[in-house]
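Quick illustration, no need to memorize.
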Amino acid sequence: MTSFYDYSVTNRNHEEISMKDYQGKVVLVVNTATGCGFTPQYKDLESMYEEFHDQGLEIIDIPCNQFAGQTPGTDDEVHQFCTLKYNTQFDQMTKSDVNGENELPLYTFLKSQQGFKGFGKGPKALAMSAMLKKIDKDYKDNPNIKWNFTKFLIDRKGNVVARFEPTEKMETVKQAVQELI
């Protein structure tokens, strides 16, 4: 049976990074974008990283341009944006697809472990649902990543324990991370 640790991704320096490097850590994998309404979540992610990194939290940032072209820059431009605007210090990978025929195998695995369960409640959730109905009327019935800043939480044993849609409050994500730390 495959596990989280059987996968690898390429960092922005074009080096292959094995998920085995994260064994024993709590990991948050996030598909990100630099020009999205959810981009300010970088601030919350960095704050969480600073608070919990010494206790074993790692964040894997995978920029993705599949959602309305909201990550148009090169890997270096994306990195400069994140470090200058949000002072990010966590690992940033090369821009990659999270859905479709060119999706990272890591994402195929993550989606198989934690499918889409809805956007929750509130104005952002309603707006996301309305927008996605226009793009894919069957969006509720597949595990695909729906938008930027979808997060997967992996425990210290490599189990994918949660999926958070971008509409989820960052405080809820932080609380789930804290419970695993």
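The two ends are 26 Å apart (CA to CA).
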